[in-house]
From TrEMBL:
Occurrences of domain Chromo (ranges): 248-291
Top-level taxon of the source organism: Eukaryota
InterPro entries associated with the record: Chromo-like_dom_sf, Chromo/chromo_shadow_dom, Integrase_cat-core, Integrase_H2C2, RNaseH-like_sf, RNaseH_sf, SH3_Tf2-1
Record's protein name: Retrotransposon protein, putative, Ty3-gypsy subclass
Species in which this protein is naturally found: Paspalum notatum var. saurae
Integrase catalytic domain location: 1-96
Gene3D superfamilies reported in the protein's UniProt record: Ribonuclease H-like superfamily/Ribonuclease H
Lineage per the UniProt record: Eukaryota, Viridiplantae, Streptophyta, Embryophyta, Tracheophyta
Amino acid sequence: MYHDLKERFWWYGMKRAVAEYVAVCDTCQRVKAEHRRPADGKTERTNQILEDMLRACAIQYGTSWDKSLPYTEFSYNNSYQASLKKSPFEALYGRRCKTPLCWNQTGEKQVFGPDLIRDAEQQIKMVRENLSVARSRRKSYANVRCGDLTFKVDDFVYLKVSPMRGIRRFNMKGKLAPRYIGPFKVVERKGEVAYKLELPSNLSGIHDVFHVSQLKKCLRVLEEQVPLEGLDVQEDLTYTEHPVKILETSERVTRNRRVKMCRVQWKHHTEDEATWEREEELRATSPRSLC
């Protein structure tokens, strides 16, 4: 919202004002997607290393960069890993890998026996200890900033639900479907990570105790609550969205065929939130909407 508004308006403290408004806006909190959990960083660092190595190969060798991929793989697999205290090859085979220039050199012969097995067991034990230390270090970093939410009795929270249409628009799901309903009052805490909510009568078929991951705190309780009539929430916290009418039709050309599209207005949504759906999928799921 801030990026859209700053193109036309500006005032002192605008970014903070917009963030505070969105935080207490009932509609925004029910529709807004939750923040993605931060990754552990391992994949991101690995991707950055591989990107840097491939970029260096492309700069050095130009169009023939793919011929250097075996050397890049060899270099990565034999690089020092802080979590292992050695290279992956050495951790796997118990010895350092020789470069292709040294393959013609013969080393000291070893006979398979108790000593070799004992050395392998010690290597495995050492690798496991190093990995355990690395995991504990990452866990301590994550626990500082991440943790389960806590609510107090008489607090108001939103309940997470999952909209189900059975329709995918070119493999894309609906964006404006409500992801939370409520707010509902917390009446009791069950254990460390579960809470009992005060649900209305039309949600009596749903168990009233929820895990903290299904809840989001409501910062401002409106005097007029959003009606839930017609929103049939199932026991698994899902509900089905039904089309109301077709506003217009169109035809899209793909690589191999023409696809007929319909702009559909959904129940509990305005015309501005209408979405484009495939006509053949509408006929299969909601044939009455095409009448």
